[in-house]
Amino acid sequence: MKFLSAIVTFENLHEVRRLCHWGPVIALSVIGICSTMAIFDSIIWYWPLDTTGGSVNFIMLLNWTVLILYNYFNAMFVGPGYIPLDWKPDGQQESQYLQFCRVCQGFKPPRSHHCRKCNRCVMKMDHHCPWINNCCGHQNHAYFTSFLILAPLGCSHAAIIFVMTMYTQLYERISFGWSTVKIDMSAPRRVQPLMPFSVPAFAATLFALGLALGTTIAVGMLFFIQMKVILRNKTSIEAWIEEKAKDRIQYYQTGEEFIFPYDLGGRWENFKQVFTWSGTPRGDGVQWPVHPKCHQHTLTIEQLKQKADKRVRSQVQYRAVEVYNGACCPVSKGLQTFFRTPCTEEPRIPLSKGDTILATRGTKGDPLPLGLELNLEVIGPPNKHPTEPEG
Ligand SMILES: [Zn+2]
Ligand SMILES: [Zn+2]
Questions:
Q1: What order of strands is seen across the sheet that includes strand 356-359?
Q2: 3-class DSSP state for residue 114?
Q3: Under a CB-based contact definition with an 8 Å cutoff, are residues 312 and 373 in contact?
Q4: Are 177 and 188 in contact (CB under 8 A)?
Q5: Which residues of 6-26 are buried (b: 16+ CB within 10 A; e: fewer)?
Q6: What is the pLDDT of residue 360?
Q7: Average pLDDT in the 176-197 region?
Q8: pLDDT tens digits, residue range 63-88?
Q9: How close is the Cα of 382 to the center of ligand 2, in Å?
Q10: Are residues 139 and 78 in contact, defined by beta-carbon separation less than 8 angstroms?
Q11: Which phi and psi angles does 126 have, rounded to 5°?
């Protein structure tokens, strides 16, 4: 099939540098350790390869590793799809409905957002994922989500191998607890195992088991989050925009009815936008099919309204009362601040004593101090507009 014959494609060779980051280094190490240990345990101690079950088990393990790496590298190197620099809509009229990105020197088409890590505007951006050191967006959404389901499945299989290896090696003979199913482990003993199950092998298997179980839980949860995004055809950023839209309509009592434009009405319909047999999602990442009551710019117009609204309300000005150097993990500001290091890799803001900063709304309409952990004193609403950071 076409999607199997396709190999990992590099948009540019320099994309390889994405591997040089803690995210891919840790992720690939975990995949490497779990796969190697599972294959190693299977061959040497658990289930002899000259039995049918042992061979099927071995092939399945290899299969998981190949599929996981295939989807992982495609998520990383195919990437989310970037909006061309200097991009303009076809019609001059349309640009009035779009936000302008000063970094990319172009307009942002619907659903795209600027990623500070990638330093580009990203098609249908969901979030920047440090584990693939790239954004999750339009073009790699299916690869990314496939990886999120395959990794827990592969890790669960590996975890079973680890438990069974330790169990069989410690007790030599295994019973599943019901008398009819028994795996006779006399075969490997007849052919003298390649090496005895030593203490280091036991420790390595136990360590791999911990990694496999941790990965199954953590990545499995991410899979459910991404499936929610796909089945509603609503990215995490768009869910946030929708929440702000409802908040804005309620605040001004405009009586507007906000319909999220990209939910095509059915889960299956939404699913098919992302998952296709060819591996390429539907659409060009610029024009999107929309709900019958909406048009191409329903959401971008809402974003512009929110941007204007942000300037006029719900801002609180704060004054810094102590110096802060902007360190990611500050040691001198107490434990709470240290452990609240932003997981999103968003930078912290260096402050001098007396600096004023503006904070916009939090989730519940409360003002959200940007440096919550710092001692900031409220000095009232702003009297001049700040220069907005690009975001
Ligand atoms: Zn941009
Ligand atoms: Zn990014």
A1: 356-359, 316-320, 376-378
A2: strand
A3: no
A4: no
A5: eeeeeeeeeeeebeebebbee
A6: 61
A7: 53
A8: 999 999 999 999 999 999 999 999 99
A9: 32
A10: yes
A11: -100, -60
Does pLDDT of 174 surpass 50? Answer: no
Query: Regarding beta strands 316-320 and 127-129, do their DSSP bridges make them parallel or antiparallel, or are they unpaired?
Result: unpaired
Q: Which H/E stretch holds residue 270? A: helix 267-274
- Per-residue pLDDT reduced to its tens digit, 348-391: 778 888 888 776 655 444 444 444 434 455 555 444 444 444 43
Distance from the CA of 104 to the center of ligand 1, in angstroms? 4
Length of the chain measured in residues? 391
Contact 212, 156 (CB under 8 A): yes
Q: Which residues surround ligand 1, an ion (CB under 5 A)?
A: 101, 103-104, 114, 121
Q: Note if 328 is an active site residue.
A: no
Domain residue ranges in the chain: 2-80+139-232, 93-122+234-309, 314-391
Instruction: Read off the pTM.
Output: 0.77
For residues 172-199, give the mean pLDDT.
54
Q: Where are the beta strands (DSSP E) in 116-223?
A: 120-122, 127-129, 134-136, 174-175, 182-183
Give me ligand 1 centre to Cα 135, in Å.
13
3-state SS class at 101:
strand
